[in-house]
Amino acid sequence: MQTAILRFEKLLLENGTYFPTITQNILEERKPGKWSKKEILGHLTDSALHNLVRFTEINYLEKPYQHRPYNQIDLVNLNQYQEMDIQELTQLWFLLNKQIVKLMKSVDEKVLDYKIVLSDESVIDLKFLMTDYIEHLEHHINQIKS
């Protein structure tokens, strides 16, 4: 888990200062049926918010933890990330993820084994969900940087 956390911290440090340097035209350009780079960052913000709740709730709610999906498209639209100032959006994304790093660093090893039931009834554990979150983050950061 330590290696994943170090990778996570590196992603935050590198990109927290990079995103605001991207020109507005590039950030807001939309291709048919796709999010803009700014909306992808908004999606990552929504993901951070929901996963922070999941990573926290699993500690005190009934086990196995029931994973609740969220409507990603509606959230990006309702939160109006396309119109948001890039400095503010980056700061929101960064601070939520900084809190997730703090939580990941403090999680007890036995908690990483707590079971999570997904909406399709498959079962994963918290360690998988946390490492998958970092991979998801990296995937979308690469989209923003491309």
UniProtKB/TrEMBL annotation:
Q: Name one Pfam family in it.
A: DinB_2
Superkingdom of this entry's organism?
A: Bacteria
Q: Which SUPFAM superfamilies match?
A: DinB/YfiT-like putative metalloenzymes
DinB-like domain: residues covered: 27-144
Quote the protein name from its UniProt record: DinB-like domain-containing protein
What organism does the record attribute this protein to? Flavobacterium aquidurense
